[in-house]
Amino acid sequence: MIKSYLNKFKKTLLDGLFPIECLSCNRDGRWICKKCLRKIYIRTIDNCPACKKESIYGKTHEWCIRKTQLDGMIVAVSFKDRILQDAVHKLKYSYIKDLSTPLSEILARKIIELDTKDDLPNLVSLLISENPIIIPVPLHKKRLRKRDFNQAELLSRKISTKFNLEHQSGILKRVKYTKPQTELKKNERKINVSGVFEVDIEWKSKLKNTKIILVDDVATTGSTLNDSARALKECGALEVWGLVLARG
Question: What value does the mean pLDDT take over residues 140-147?
Answer without folding.
Answer: 87
